[in-house]
Specification:
five-stranded mixed β-barrel, 16 strands, OB fold (Dihydrolipoamide Acetyltransferase, E2P), 4 helices, 44% strand, 223 residues
């Protein structure tokens, strides 16, 4: 599974509030249906830096419908040498074992169990027996990261760092890397180096760092 491509698509859809992907299953079964646009917008708030941030850090980690019934999501409440304790979004508690699991720090970095800390948001695929989940894949969203989006005009480009000024005149620092997806106006793929220039109108979706106050870009769409 290409974890980076999956997550780019997820965050792009979520942050743009087009369609909410099917809810991840919880201890009492999967939630059905789609949330309305109004509900989507209610989950977003604009911070003092002009970035729209999802209040629930898990919103950006939902996987497409074909996986939805296999996943549990929630927060890490304790970490041990063999796994961690999960508090799901409906307040059920599970012990998660990770001896055979691939742990992916979103968006695309494979990490070790020791990198998971209390407070991280996680989504899990695995076999469930009672209150124990034998995880095969764990998607980890660090406590200081939240799914977010920003849109405006590019006012500066320096290497992989792009400054986007919003309509409220807020300057958002956007960090890009080789995995950042750029979509040109005609829908074709572009690059940061050649297509994201001063004066470009863009919509950026990615992960907001609440400590460094920068937006790590997963996708930049030129308008």
């Amino acid at each position: 599974m290409n974890y980076k491509n999956v997550f780019v698509k997820i965050v792009g859809v979520t942050a743009m509030a087009a369609v909410l992907l099917p809810s991840i299953a919880s201890a009492h079964g999967s939630e059905k249906g789609e949330r309305s646009r109004t509900e989507m917008h209610n989950q977003l708030s604009t911070n003092e830096f002009g970035v729209r941030v999802f209040e629930d850090g898990n919103k950006g980690t939902n996987l497409p419908g074909m996986f939805s019934s296999l996943f549990y999501k929630g927060s890490v409440t304790a970490v041990s040498g063999s796994g961690f304790t999960l508090l799901t979004t409906n307040n059920a508690t599970f012990t998660v074992t990770t001896s055979g699991a691939k742990i992916v720090r979103l968006p695309h970095t494979v990490v070790a169990l020791s990198d998971i800390v209390i407070g991280d948001k996680v989504s899990i695929m695995g076999a469930v027996t009672g209150s124990v989940i034998d995880a095969s894949v764990v998607f980890d969203l660090p406590i200081n990261k939240k799914s977010a989006m920003a849109k405006g005009t590019v006012t500066a480009v320096s290497g992989g760092t792009v400054t986007v000024t919003t309509k409220d005149n807020k300057a958002v620092t956007v960090n890009t890397d080789s995995n950042t997806q750029v979509v040109k106006k005609d829908g074709t793929a572009g690059t940061v180096a050649t297509d994201v220039t001063v004066g470009s109108k863009v919509k950026v979706s990615g992960l907001w760092d609440t400590v460094l106050h920068v937006l790590g870009a997963l996708k930049i769409k030129l308008k």
